[in-house]
Amino acid sequence: MDFRLVFKLFLVCLLGEVLMAEGLACNWGTRVTHPLPPDIAVKLMKDNGIDKVKLFEVVPDVMGALGNSGIQVMVGIPNDMLASLASSVRVAEDWVTQNVSRYVSRNGVDIRYVAIGNEPFLKTYKDMFTQTIYPALENIQAALIKAGLGRQVKVTIPINADVYQSDSGMPSGGNFRPDIHGLMISIVKFLSDNGGPLTINIYPFLSLYADPHFPVDFAFFDGAAAPVVDGGVTYGNVFEANYDTLVWSLEKNGFPNLPIIVGEVGWPTDGDVNANIENARRFNQGLLNRINQGKGTPKRASPPDIYLFALIDEDAKSTEPGNFERHWGIFYYDGSIKYPLNLANNKNLTAAKGVQYLSRQWCVMRPDADPSDPNLPQSINKACTYADCTSLGYGSSCGGLDVRNNASYAFNMYFQTMNQTKGSCDQFSNLSVITSIDPSTRIRGGACRFEIMIDIGKGGKTRKPTTSSAGRMYNSIFASSFLLGLLAFVS
Ligand SMILES: *[C@@H]1O[C@H](CO)[C@@H](O)[C@H](O)[C@H]1NC(C)=O
Ligand SMILES: *[C@@H]1O[C@H](CO)[C@@H](O)[C@H](O)[C@H]1NC(C)=O
Ligand SMILES: *[C@@H]1O[C@H](CO)[C@@H](O)[C@H](O)[C@H]1NC(C)=O
Ligand SMILES: *[C@@H]1O[C@H](CO)[C@@H](O)[C@H](O)[C@H]1NC(C)=O
Ligand SMILES: *[C@@H]1O[C@H](CO)[C@@H](O)[C@H](O)[C@H]1NC(C)=O
């Protein structure tokens, strides 16, 4: 082989590596009883090539761990703060000082976006936030500019896909919902004028959950569904069709090029008949393949940033949307692996390292207690009022247990949630006992996990960050001049 050809091949490989290094993005929610220590969670993201994270609120120790981590951050403002932020620029300035400027300058947190509100136009909210969202957006933008962060930090609003619809049922028929049409146009214009993207959450799982007649395969990316033909364009999955409905809606209203971020997309593993490991793996692997291939949609070729929902399970989230709401994690609550995923370059998912657990003991139903004991139902009920029993429901991972194992699961969740404290296995009318034998091993199939919680008293301290931002900058300058040199050589 000719030397130049060998060199060109080498260069192609090298560039391939650099392109692949474009990382993944995910949501990190913190509605949990036993948080994964933030430094372990940050390491978990880095080990798995996740270099962008979206937070729903500003949590000080989480921000501390993200400082100088090389991870870009989108911080969220909860809906319940919109009214006060809308009321005055001063409130917005305080928020930016406390929650953005401070972390950027003192902790080296690479904040790129502020997400204002979260799905404020959900129909279930009625019109609760329609008066405050726009002034809150204006005030935060003004505050960012005043803080000197107008270039670095962009505003956005994460919206649910129900803000647009299509009368024809096809993406090309897309337009914003009539009741908020004018408001959406004002928001989109403001974002466009200020260089902010629109953030959209797309949930094929919820399409399936809401409509039993939804064609199951159309929720996934493997082309198994009958395609939907829209004019000259063919859609093989609901994700693309949904995204393009938004692109059409924007185009129809004069904003064909507004940047779009997919703020949340994922599949839960428990809490519903369609929420299981197999479906979640099928969906997320298909999604990751698209991301790694840099695939766009028929209507917009350039791929958006896609934030996976979510990094870990959250056992204290509201179950109002459904029991699945606590099981969206790629990882379990402790950063352990639910199912294998191929990330890129044949790299497999890696579990969290260094997690400290409570003792290996469980609270279960006494072997000599009677399953027909009249106190049993109220005891289970008590346990499940304080602990997460969403895996016990119909079609869930522990849904098929007999009465005894069912009770044991509930008692154990309570015991673990209470940090295995003395007395917390004594609350169930003399029906429970502590054991050191893992109850999951006695259950066929092994899908039902009797958790042991993280010991948050231990190992929760933030370690010193390992890479300084100066070091990273040096590395990237080095990498790019190295590449430029090679390009000059070959051409
Ligand atoms: C910073 O944000 C948190 C919630 O994300 C909020 O509770 C707190 O009040 C904010 N600080 C200010 C000064 O607004
Ligand atoms: C990734 O995991 C799969 C099993 O799920 C295994 O076959 C494969 O060898 C692993 N790849 C690497 C690089 O470890
Ligand atoms: C608890 O139940 C066991 C048998 O199931 C019995 O031997 C014991 O006396 C009971 N203890 C109390 C305090 O009722
Ligand atoms: C198990 O407990 C859950 C939660 O209380 C309950 O809904 C379910 O009916 C129970 N199942 C059995 C088999 O007892
Ligand atoms: C469990 O322990 C942690 C750390 O000590 C504490 O913050 C938390 O409140 C405890 N949970 C309960 C239910 O007592």
Automatic annotation (TrEMBL):
SUPFAM superfamilies: (Trans)glycosidases. Residues 1-25 form the signal peptide. PROSITE patterns: GLYCOSYL_HYDROL_F17. It comes from the Eukaryota. Its EC number is 3.2.1.39. InterPro entries: GH, Glyco_hydro_17, Glyco_hydro_17_plant, X8. Belongs to the glycosyl hydrolase 17 family. PANTHER family: GLUCAN ENDO-1,3-BETA-GLUCOSIDASE BG1-RELATED-RELATED. This is glucan endo-1,3-beta-D-glucosidase.
